[in-house]
Amino acid sequence: VQLVESGGGLVQPGGSLRLSCAASGLTFGDYAVAWFRQAPEKDRELVSHISASGRNTIYADSVKGRFTLSRDNAKSTAYLQMNSLKPEDTAVYYCAARRWGALYGPNEYNYWGPGTQVTVSS
Q: Does residue 27 contact residue 98 with C-beta atoms inside 8 Å?
C-alpha cells in the first residue's frame, strides 16, 4: 500500500492550495481517508476525514468553512482544497487511510503518506 501526497508549497496569506493524495495497492473505495498536519514542536492533528463512500466528512474547527475534502474513487485519489490560508496553517500535511474505525486519532489509521510541506507566509 502506498499513499503519496502532492500539491504543497509556499503561498501567501489568503491564498489557496489543493493537496492530492494518490493511493495504490488497496481497494481505495473500501477505505476512509484523512488529512493530518503537524507543525514544528506540535502534535499531529486531524484536519479532515472522509468516509469510504465520500458521503460523510468531518473537519477540525480551525479549518471549517475554508477547507474541503473530497475523493474520486475511480482515480484512487483524495483532494484537500485549502482556501483563505493563514500562517497558522503552516505544517507538514499527511494523508492517511483506514478500513475500519470510529475514532479520529492518528493511531486509528493504518497507512500514511510521507507528507507534503505547506508554508503560508508573506
A: no
Residue identified by cell 483532494 is 79
Is the CA virtual torsion 49, 62, 105, 119 positive or negative?
A: positive
Set of cell numbers at residue 28: 481505495
For the chain, counts of helices (H) and of strands (E): 0, 11
Entry field: residues in the chain: 122
- Per-residue pLDDT tens over the stretch 59-103: 999 999 999 999 999 999 999 999 999 999 999 999 999 998 888
Structural contact between residues 69 and 49, judged by C-beta atoms closer than 8 angstroms = yes
CA distance 20 to 88: 20
Q: Contact 105/48 with Cβ under 8 angstroms?
A: no
DSSP 62: T
Please, what is the end-to-end C-alpha distance for the chain in angstroms?
37
